[in-house]
Amino acid sequence: MDKKHHIAIYTTASIPWLTGTSINPLFRAAYLAKDGEQKVTLVIPWLPLKDQEHVFPSGVKFNSHLEQEKCVRQWLEERTGFASNFSIRFYPGKFSLDKRSILALGDITVIIPDDEADVAVLEEPEHLTWFHHGKRWKKKFRLVVGIVHTNYLEYVKRERNAVEAFFLKQINSWVVDLYCHKPRSDGIEKRMLFHRRFFLVILPRSDGLEKRYSSTSKCCNFLLWQVIRLSAATQDLPRSLVCNVHGVNPKFLQIGMKTIEKQQNDNQAFSKGVYYIGKMLWSKGYKELLRLLRDHQKELTGLEIDLYGSGEDSAQIEVAFKKLELTVRVHPARDHADPLFHKLRWTFNYGMKAVYDWKNAAAGCTFCEKHDLTGIINFSYKVLLNPSTTDVVCTTTAEALAMGKIVVCANHPSNEFFMQFQNCRTYDDGKGFVKATLKALADEPAPLADKQRHELSWEAATERFLKSAQLDVVPVKKTSKTSSKSFLSTSFSLTRKLEDASASVHFMGTGFLSSQPDEEQCKELGLAIPSKKKGFSSGRWI
Questions:
Q1: Which of 105, 131, 300, 406 has a CA-to-CA distance to 446 between 20 and 30 Å?
Q2: Which letter does DSSP use for residue 34 in this model?
Q3: Domain count of the chain?
Q4: Are residues 127 and 266 in the same domain?
Q5: pLDDT (tens digit, 9 = 90+) per residue, 2-53?
Q6: Over pLDDT 90: what percentage of the chain?
């Protein structure tokens, strides 16, 4: 008997689109499959050519899903340093200009054959199930776990209005409750009675007596939570657990190790540089950063800051920051692992400064032969300012900490995971921001301890995920049902019937809202071509 879990990870984006829901599920698949204890399949969207141009870098396109798979694996291997041993499958998708995101087409549960269906991990469960029209996830898979990445409510409040945010909140709670499993215990016989927001857990004791715990009791820690929220900055969904199950690209940890070596050898691992890196949208922290700098220019006299990013608001952001009395330089987007952030700076006696890739420096530089070099110093930005509060868990902050930098960020639920690190400095208001920034510039970053470095790694993130979803135990066959009190059986039966009725309503509604993949996409992915009938999919709802 095969005792391995077969984990299918469904996500809403894919490399080469460099977004959180393409990068983090990819790393999760790689590290879950690394030791061979799990069978892992990553299920990602396949877009037609006309949609690829909206999300992929300029000039990048794929004529077949095999070309994209090759790109995905190459990108991953360059960052992990090991060959991945998980499967990649594609589901048909389309890019929604209105929602600025990829939506699935048709019934994407069919991508995993029934005989392989075991555990499904839905990265962004609300996103994947808004328009899901097909077989019910909980009927198809033994276990369905959701991981909430995005604070959609905050974006809708900022970009639309509070009324739409209210309705979205109800819809998110509804679909996640429908399609992700409810709490259960593993290996412990139990019965639950749900009543409104309170549930009672009844456990048998060794002496034959039953012990009862309320939902607020610490004794309920054995419960399996099927919805994992990366931070408390996400929507508070029913029966969800807050746990950061993301890690950082291993390259950043390697950079951090080299930083420690520099600190130990010459104590000159950093310059006095301050920077912020992020997509140039006002909602990505630039509005907050501008306000903080503008209101406290006198206290921060002499501060120089570099901004790196590209986006729809780039021009407006550059104009606004140039009006400040402080020195603010705006640059195009760069990879956070770029040598620019952590390598060498050459200094000329004419006062000119240029940054080079460390490989070019090692090979010798003929570009500057007309100038006398006054010296070469180790160069790395020391402080990352990150005022953004729209991110659920800011990857940039994790990367900066991994590289050994000091991070100044808001005292906000999205940053709670990072507060365990000595180099994370938080603030509550403008005065706190000034104090934290000036102190960060005056201090030297504390070297990361081995335990802290592990906490940032994907190995630790994988451990947290397996523990949170209780997938760190060997799957067992379902035990035979035990007798229970009739009123409990009736309660569970009624709950199931209500859920079935609710799912039927969702299925019928999405029949008029969801779209089917076109013939070309189906042929490319080897899927059955859907019927032309409008309103309902060709697949039978089960």
A1: 300
A2: T
A3: 2
A4: no
A5: 678 899 999 999 999 888 899 999 999 999 999 888 999 999 999 999 989 8
A6: 40
| C-beta separation of 357 from 345 below 8 A | no
3-state SS class at 537: coil
pLDDT tens column, 479-523: 444 444 555 455 556 666 666 666 666 556 556 566 777 788 888
CB 537 within 8 A of CB 134: yes
Name the 3-class secondary structure at 348. Answer: strand
Q: How far apart are CA 260 and CA 438, in angstroms?
A: 23
Question: What is the Cα–Cα distance from 394 to 147, expressed in whole angstroms?
Answer: 16
Q: From CA 282, how far away is CA 307, in angstroms rounded?
A: 13
Q: Give yes or no: residues 229 and 300 share one domain.
A: no
pLDDT for position 530: 75
Under a CB-based contact definition with an 8 Å cutoff, are residues 380 and 343 in contact? yes
Domain of residue 95, residue span: 5-184+224-246+467-486+516-525
Q: How long a stretch of residues is the chain?
A: 542
Can you list the pairs that 533-538 forms with residues at least 24 positions away whose Cβ atoms lie under 8 Å?
Answer: 535/511, 536/133, 536/511, 537/106, 537/107, 537/133, 537/134, 537/511
- 102 by DSSP, 3-state: which? strand
Considering only CA atoms, which of 307, 310, 335 is closest in space to residue 322? 307
Q: Beta strand pairing status for 327-331 and 240-242?
A: unpaired
User: Number of C-alpha atoms within 13 angstroms, CB side, residue 222?
Assistant: 13
Supply the DSSP symbol for 427.
Answer: E
175 and 111, same domain (yes or no): yes
